[in-house]
Amino acid sequence: MTDNQQPQEQPYYPPRPPYDPAEPISTEPGTTVWPSGGHTPAGGYSPPPPPQQPAFASPAPAPGPHRRAKRGVGLLAAVAIAAAAVGGGTATLVERWTSDGAASATGSVSGTNVSASSKGTVAGVAQAVSPSIVEISASSTSGKSTGSGVIITGDGEIVTNNHVISGASSIKVQTSDGKSYDAKVVGTDPDKDLALIKLEGASGLKTATLGDSSKVRVGDEVVAIGSPEGLTGTVTSGIVSALDRDVTVAKEDGQGQGQDQGQDQGQGQQWDPRQGWPFEFGGQQFNGDTGSSKTTYKAIQTDASLNPGNSGGALINMNGEIIGINSAMYSPSSSGGSTAGSVGLGFAIPVDTLKADLDSLRSGGAA
User: Active-site residue 39, yes or no?
Assistant: First the structure.
């Protein structure tokens, strides 16, 4: 080589690292994971691995992907716990709402057996109260009369009209389930046309609830239950037509009326119970002569159909509470002397009058 001759230029090669990198492991497109735990985009430069740890050094922390996996599991667990907590709270709320809703839906109207779903319906009132209404048959040497009564105690105390049982030598009572009982008179109050009888050997009877007649208003819907013409458990309905009507009725039963009439028309005449209840109103007599022994009281007027046999039965409000004891009806007379059916003029003794008189009736009543 001469002095003018230039040395031949060699291509440049970058220095190689003092070690050979391990082969990469491809996982998903675009990512290359090296055994050292690092990761770079595919085709990019990867830095050399960190220096080797001494043999006695503690193991390196878990690789990044595993740390992320643990955090993911922890997050899922936290979400599951939160969902369980919310779900439990929702279940509790739904259970409480369902419980409250069921109680209100099946709950009963206060003081009655009329369910909330049937409150205000004639069918609901009839179903609840009919078992507390009885048919009364009073017999004497002069004949037999039929009326109704209201059970007020489970052992068989029954309220009825005085004119239903006055003068009777024997009293039979039939309940709504068809059972028959003998009954004795406990007390009477002819001035209020009320009487209290007691069944013999009765127990567990379904009792009626006595309401508050001071709260009754004209136009209120009412139901009447009794045994007109011996048809036990007959239900009719209507409204309260008027309040505080002065109604005059006979103190004695039909037999007594027959005796009173017999003084003028001959002895032995018997009262026909089909003629209805003799009573006076507005200075006129209806359904027969009331006789010389009579009394006057304030009555609830109703257009609920009443017929002979309803006497002593119940006038009921739409909550199933007794507001009156049916006691008289107007029925126009036919040419043959008998009476037609109800024309919507019936009268009932207010239940407040009965409640005020109960203690007296239980003690034997007025003389």
Answer: no
